[in-house]
Structures
1.
Amino acid sequence: MSIASGVCKTLAANRRYKSSDRNVGSISGFKGIGDYDSSLNMILYSCGHHRSPLLDSYTAQGEFDCSDFISLPKELKPCLTKFMININNKDLCNGLEFRDNSGLTIGAEDSKYFIYFVQRLDNDRDNSEKTMGTNSLRAYHTNINTINNELDHIIVGVHPSIFGVLIPPKTTNFLNVGHCSSKCFNQKIPEKGLTIMGVQPHVHTSGTKIKIRHFHDNNELDVILYVDHYNESTNKYYKPIHRVQFKENDTLSVECLFNNDLDNETRVTLTGKFDHNYGDMCYAYIYYYPKINVTSNICSSMNDEQTILDIADINELSGYWNSPEPIIRRPIYLNNTRLEDHLRRKIYYRDDIQQLLRLSPKRIRCDIIPQKTESSHLAYINYPDRFGK
């Protein structure tokens, strides 16, 4: 059985590229180096302005197991909300280069810390060593003043939490959908829109198809991406066939189809552990320009609490999706049961489960980590009226 695990290393930036501009420089392309067969993807996260005396000590340490993001030290968690580079297995060897004379900025002048993450596929859970091995990431550095378009990236689709993906047992082509609203951009989108120049789907082993639909108000525009025979091991970075402009009042809808051949287990979103045999995700990394401010690094939606109550046949929950984990309070016989455990063990669902998951109100989520003001800023989204019928 193949088990996915994560290995991380905390890095301190080399200041050789420091310039008088607000950015250190830009990355115009990158490639992976090392063991392509066992590496699923490599990610470079930026800690941004986050600083801590403990981060200096982490950079002096070696690699560490980060297969469970939830259990990471609190000093490192803010670093995992903004990635700089994400390169998938298919592109590791060949690398990729951004077109339109564009590049990703490495970070602000006072950005210092980064986390380098390698997700590996281990064939033996017990004997797999949690090391990066020969894997490394090579980025092509370009002076920020020499590029025409400053890129940024965002995750769009289903929120990666227990309120996200759900696939009942013994189902085929079961659809989950997540929506990205322009409300997640806290800076006004330029009148010409944001040019989407690259897409990387992120679905695990049970995913079979992925489609990214584009809506402006109540009108559907050209499909941005459609992968008919999705395979995680051969996933790659896609360039849109046509020019895509994401404007104010636009919505991106990420639809994923899944097969669950398990007889007695529901597949749900991974909630921290990178174990592909027990969870799944449905989103895509979108690269775009010009760079503008966003609330976080994610533009997604998730099922609301009432939908979860209806699906799970329960009456009351306490806690939120991650911190603390949702715990069932009623019915009494399920009191103190983790919602995730209950859903995984659930076998029978109502007949309209597919319709309910697809068309029920979805809460707009612009953050991966729960915020203190969460309950006071609720907004909902779904397909435009005539496409949700």
2.
Amino acid sequence: MSIKIYSIELVVKQLKSMLTKYDNGLMTYQISQLKEIRRIIHSNDSKETKEHKIRNIVESLYPSSGGLTDFHVWVEDEKERIRINKPISELNDRLWELVMTN
């Protein structure tokens, strides 16, 4: 497994865990797509095929509205809200960076 694919898997695993924990009922599609990325990573497809399939999924996860970038957890306490949302935002940025840049 390449370092890039391995890094993508780590980010997807962490992001899926956080989305599952804080799911507001609107993240079913996104969670299923993250599961699909992990399935692709462990498939027998070539590295190039894996990267192509993962890229297509990631593009679908970040539409102009309603995607992963719009997911935020709301709690009254501002410090708690930041504590929860900051890592989600960082994981989103890292996934995009890993998949969409060469």
